[in-house]
Amino acid sequence: MEKGLVSIDRWNEGSQAYFLTHLHDDHTAGLSAAWRRGPLFCSPVTASLLPFRFRGFDVSLIRVIEVGATRALDLVSPASGAPVRVLVTAIDAHHCPGALMYLFHGTFGWVLYTGDFRWELSSERSQLAKRMLLDVLQGNTIDVLYMDNTYCNPSFSFPPREVATKQVIDIIVMHPDHDIVIAIGNLGKEELLVNISKALNIKIRVWPERLRTMHLLGYKDVFTTNTSLTRVRAIPRYSFTFETIDGLNQMRPTIGIMPSGLPWLLDTSKNTTLYTSLKSHQSEASPDLLQDMPHVRKLKHNAYCVPYSEHSCFSEIAQFIKVLQPSNISGIVSSTYIYINPRYYFSRVDRYLSDKSCESSKSGKSEVDKMGSSSGCKPSWQVRKEWKIKYVSLTSSGHVRRVSGLPRARRGAKIEASDSVSSS
Question: Most exposed of 212, 228, 338, 380 (fewest Cβ within 10 Å)?
Fold first, then answer.
């Protein structure tokens, strides 16, 4: 799109319409109570949470867009002053509460921005999202896919969240005389906690701010701040350290559970440090693996990591790309624990040769993009087998320490077109 029209998860740009995929911190950097740049489109759930996250926020700027709904934006081209209409459809991202993908359509073609998403095809929600996307596209090709590439590496393979949830419950049941602490963020993994509560017929303790969020999300009878009512509690992810768990064990036997897509192991150089290690994740005979739960890792005698992920793993990303067959891909995560450009794995250099019947591009020419393929054809995706790894460590204080240099860039794409915002 033309620059100066639409921004997604970026709040310091001079655009005419702004879109928020969800309320995680890395997607709201630059957003504040004083922000007044223009209309902000988001899901109903995000709209209900946003004023409590940013107290004093001007709610008149919020434009709610329902899953499956298509909105028309009448914007104005910054270059020519001509009117341009942009159609946008909201698709369930199946990430955290209120998370959306945005599919844009106009004279620029078709652009899909996933935000953070989980393409878990065993889930009815993901199947519905797939049908919605294909129904709206009606056979058209996505020209640019801005995709969540958090776990875009063959090393990452984790089970459906339903399976991971059962594994968490099994760990709790295996330790009937222990208190349990589960690491979560300010938003997300609510379904995990609710399912634990239902399976064990107990309440889950959370901290006061998190309880308010739970109530806003409609969970009235599951959570509490009263320590005496339950042995299972959720704690902020940043406070999940070996020092914390060891300290709790000085008072009562306590087991810590980290639900995360990253494989966490003990850094032997510092007993208090957790770090990511893809090499050990591949090990077929690691002593840290539990026999009955092959996906679970034991971090220490009193801490476990369960691969409960709200991001797609590599096989799910591959399936997503196979279904949509986009002409171009751009990863939205360029500064992260492990940096992976999706183009490294999903190459289309043979596309033009493999499909000689494809038509020329809209300009009347068969243009070849940087990947060496014709922009007017359907791609034939191929997955590279080789892969490289970069990782960082998480210190006991919860701060990320970079182990190898990673490119730093703002998260989120800035997408532009020519229109003036319709608030309808």
Answer: 228
* Answer CATH for 6-154+312-340+387-415 from 3.30.470.20, 3.60.15.10, 3.30.1050.10, 3.10.580.10: 3.60.15.10
pLDDT value for 16: 96
Residue pair 380/348 in contact by the 8 Å Cβ criterion: yes
Evaluate if pTM is beyond 0.85: no
CATH number of 161-306, picked from 3.30.70.260, 2.40.50.140, 3.40.50.12650, 3.40.640.10 = 3.40.50.12650
Ranges in the chain, pLDDT < 50 = 265-290, 349-381, 385-420, 423-424
Q: What is the pLDDT of residue 383?
A: 54
How far the first Cα of the chain sits from its last, in Å, is 22
Beta bridge partners of 304: 257, 298
Fill in the amino acid letter for 310. Answer: E
- Report pLDDT for 347: 66
